[in-house]
């Protein structure tokens, strides 16, 4: 069973430090089943094992402030739906995106596409949001931001990891969500075979929507978070090396969702 630690500071913007939080209890000591706890508690730490961890805080920002961000981003971000390469073939990326980075950082590139790096100065509300993320995560630092807009349930992001050389071996990625609730899935990367092949690869496979079947079992190698309007999810440690994540198509999800992932380019 996955090991969730309670946040003793519910109601604040701070996550407990899982290394030092001696008062935290494993979830199994507190209440069953664990899925209820995810809904009741305002923030949880999910220990994925082997040095990987996810933190989730449902109410990082207030409902109203979150809608203000949504309206601003929807209107003022120069959204682009780029053509990317999937198995060498050009396809339209199944969501809009934009990239913001501090000056002088290594370029971002994925699936044959190199997004233009916009400056933080172009978007003052995002500088404020970056400050709020830094305040919520003492000791963490971010200098770049990938923005995604899912215009309905047919937009998605396939199984992938955010593993860039320039992020170092244990990147921390902080994800803030606005608008429509969608499922964020994590699954353990398949182990290398005896021939040394690892399949499927961890590349972005934007031509292949992830399976619609979300296992409801307590498979420790699979986790689902319903990311709420104004929520914060943080992936830490070896999550990008050992786990894949995706936001699958959900035809019934009719409205727009905007997700921001803050990253540190070293
Ligand atoms: O939209 C999300 O929640 C995830 C986006 C993501 O994984 C990415 O931009 O790399
Ligand atoms: Fe990602």
Automatic annotation (TrEMBL):
Residues 141-266 form the Fe2OG dioxygenase domain. GO terms for biological process: DNA alkylation repair. Residues 1-27, 189-221 are annotated as: Disordered. It comes from the Eukaryota. Residues 203-221 have a biased composition (Basic and acidic residues). This is Oxygenase. Substrate binds at residues 87-89. It holds the Pfam family 2OG-FeII_Oxy_2. The lineage of its organism: Eukaryota, Viridiplantae, Streptophyta, Embryophyta, Tracheophyta. PANTHER family: ALPHA-KETOGLUTARATE-DEPENDENT DIOXYGENASE ALKB HOMOLOG 2 (PTHR31573), DNA OXIDATIVE DEMETHYLASE ALKBH2 (PTHR31573:SF1). GO terms for molecular function: broad specificity oxidative DNA demethylase activity; cytosine C-5 DNA demethylase activity; ferrous iron binding. Belongs to the alkB family. 2-oxoglutarate binds at residues 148, 150, 160, 245, 257, 261, 263.
């Amino acid at each position: 069973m996955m090991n969730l630690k309670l946040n003793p500071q519910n109601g604040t913007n701070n996550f407990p430090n899982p290394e030092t939080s001696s008062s935290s209890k494993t979830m199994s000591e507190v209440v069953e089943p664990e899925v209820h706890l995810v809904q009741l508690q305002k923030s949880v730490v999910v220990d994925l094992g082997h040095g990987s961890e996810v933190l989730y805080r449902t109410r990082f920002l207030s409902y109203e402030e979150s809608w203000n961000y949504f309206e601003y981003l929807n209107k003022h971000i120069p959204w682009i739906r780029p053509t990317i390469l999937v198995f060498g073939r050009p396809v339209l990326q199944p969501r809009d995106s934009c990239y913001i980075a501090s000056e002088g950082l290594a370029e971002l590139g994925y699936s044959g596409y190199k997004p233009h790096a916009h400056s933080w100065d172009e978007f003052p509300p995002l500088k404020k949001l970056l400050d709020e993320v830094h305040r919520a995560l003492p000791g963490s630092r971010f200098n770049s931001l990938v923005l995604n807009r899912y215009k309905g349930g047919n937009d998605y992001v396939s199984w992938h990891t955010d593993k860039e050389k320039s992020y170092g071996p244990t990147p921390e990625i902080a994800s803030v969500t606005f608008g429509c609730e969608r499922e964020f899935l994590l699954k353990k990367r398949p182990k290398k075979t005896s021939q040394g092949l690892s399949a499927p690869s961890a590349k972005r496979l934007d031509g292949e929507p992830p399976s619609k079947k979300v296992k409801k079992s307590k498979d420790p190698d699979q986790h689902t978070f319903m990311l709420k309007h104004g929520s914060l999810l943080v992936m830490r440690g070896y999550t990008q090396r050992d786990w894949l994540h995706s936001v699958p198509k959900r035809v019934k999800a009719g409205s727009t969702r905007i997700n921001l992932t803050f990253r540190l380019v070293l």
